[in-house]
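User: Hi! I'm working on a homework problem where we have to compare a predicted structure to a textbook description. Could you give me the structure for the chain below?
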Amino acid sequence: MKKPSKTDAGKQIKEFFDDLENKTILDIRKMKKLAMNCNVQLNELRKKFCKRCYFPLWDSKIRIKKGIKTIECKNCGKVNRWKIKTS
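Assistant: Happy to help. Predicted structure tokens:
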């Protein structure tokens, strides 16, 4: 099977993450692997799932403190942290 082009992979990944609630952990893992193989950056999309177990973070514990957004995964308990951009 041929590797898809970078633009095709980017479109496929964007469509996939539009409806993340109905996806399984294996589907998310496959999309991340596709992005890595085709050298497509996920940017803001990578903040929609856990770094460790790939569980969607749409219904997790969220805390904001000192300019850092902390999200705790409901599935594995991993704490995902990101800086909040201030303008």
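For your comparison, note the following. Strands lie at 61-65, 68-72, 79-83. The two ends are 45 Å apart (CA to CA). Good luck with the assignment!
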